[in-house]
UniProtKB/TrEMBL annotation:
It comes from Parasphingorhabdus litoris. It catalyses: (6R)-5,10-methenyltetrahydrofolate + H2O = (6R)-10-formyltetrahydrofolate + H(+); (6R)-5,10-methylene-5,6,7,8-tetrahydrofolate + NADP(+) = (6R)-5,10-methenyltetrahydrofolate + NADPH. Its EC number is 1.5.1.5, 3.5.4.9. Residues 9-124 form the Tetrahydrofolate dehydrogenase/cyclohydrolase catalytic domain. Catalyzes the oxidation of 5,10-methylenetetrahydrofolate to 5,10-methenyltetrahydrofolate and then the hydrolysis of 5,10-methenyltetrahydrofolate to 10-formyltetrahydrofolate. This is Bifunctional protein FolD. Belongs to the tetrahydrofolate dehydrogenase/cyclohydrolase family. InterPro entries: Aminoacid_DH-like_N_sf, NAD(P)-bd_dom_sf, THF_DH/CycHdrlase, THF_DH/CycHdrlase_cat_dom, THF_DH/CycHdrlase_CS, THF_DH/CycHdrlase_NAD-bd_dom.
Length: 300
């Protein structure tokens, strides 16, 4: 709590707890199936940020007691070779989850690659089959960042029924699935985006704000209703100060200003980012359990 009573939502701590609960479920899966859940991560090219993310996914997967298979391909990999790898992983019984790190180099067709993933191994929840299942209210593998964001919201607010939720951003990765999840929780959902008129006034009506636009500190403090709960999905690196090597990481919300208005807000870093990785492990265990014909692990 700060002096005005606004809470910083500790996504890092929540994610650590979730990873512990996953780790405790893995031996039960092993006992019932005689095998270990496995996650395959495919990285094409040598983008430094992607390298860091893939390394931390690998570490977290091993720490949870699961198998991690890393596939690093050169930046000039051909579409057909990438699809062939995905198909090999689809057929591999030791692989429960497949994640192709995005973005892919420009010459590759991202959509076609995602569509080649077996929907039951699609731990990113990006295949149209999973997007359709989510929209239809069916059991689906659900994109990690929105699901992690929802977990933080429910932890903070309990029942979300009837609350006004505004999602800023309409990406397939975050905005659209986030809106579906909030709708399924009986929120009144508004999706705002780059063409929305009077965005500050739209955001002012929200009890819940999810900012996922990828523009540093775009959502200002005075756009927020007093007592709103804010999930800041943005990860933007500012230009470095003179003499510094790396700029500061900021979200899509002007956090310091927001603190004068909100009931609670996720920080950047330490908010949604760590949740994304924990939910990836959760989705891998869920995918493994479903494929093995077991019940979905509880409490995850
Ligand atoms: N197929 C696919 N699935 C993804 O889920 C996916 C992807 N591609 N491509 C890249 C983005 C990015 N992403 C993050 C995961 C964790 C943090 C994270 O843990 N961030 C920390 C620290 C960040 C830092 O210091 O750089 C934090 O926010 O506290 C951030 C970003 C997953 N992505």
């Amino acid at each position: 709590m700060t002096k005005n009573g606004a809470a910083i939502i500790d996504g890092k701590a929540y994610a650590a707890g979730l990873r512990e609960r996953i780790k405790a479920e893995v031996p039960k899966f092993q006992e019932e199936t005689g095998r270990t859940p496995g996650l395959a991560v495919v990285l094409v090219g040598d983008d430094p940020a992607s390298q860091v993310y893939v390394a931390s996914k690998h570490k977290a997967t091993i720490a949870a007691g699961m198998e991690s298979f890393e596939h690093r391909l050169p930046a000039d990999t051909k579409q057909e070779d990438l699809i062939a790898l995905v198909e090999k992983l689809n057929a591999d019984e030791t692989v429960d989850g497949i994640l192709v790190q995005l973005p892919l180099p420009d010459h590759l067709d991202e959509k076609a690659v995602v569509m080649a993933i077996d929907p039951d191994k699609d731990v990113d929840g990006l295949h149209v089959i999973n997007a359709g299942r989510l929209a239809n209210g069916e059991e689906a593998l659900t994109p990690c960042t929105p699901l992690g964001s929802l977990m933080l919201l429910k932890d903070q607010l309990g029942d979300l029924s009837g609350l006004n939720a505004v999602v800023v951003g309409r990406s397939i990765l975050v905005g659209k699935p986030m809106a579906q999840l909030l709708l399924a929780e009986n929120c009144t959902v508004t999706m705002a985006h780059s063409r929305t008129r009077d965005l500050p006034d739209v955001v002012r009506r929200a009890d819940i704000v999810v900012a996922a636009v990828g523009r540093a500190e775009m959502v200002k403090g005075d756009w927020l209703k007093d007592g709103a709960v804010v999930i800041d999905v943005g990860i933007n690196r500012l230009a470095p100060d003179p003499g510094k090597e790396k700029g500061r990481l900021v979200g899509d919300v002007a956090t310091a200003e927001a603190m004068d208005h909100v009931r609670a807000i996720t920080p950047v870093p330490g908010g949604v980012g760590p949740m994304t990785i924990a939910v990836l492990l959760r989705n891998t265990l869920v995918a493994a359990s479903m494929r093995a014909g077991l019940d979905k692990p509880k409490g995850l």
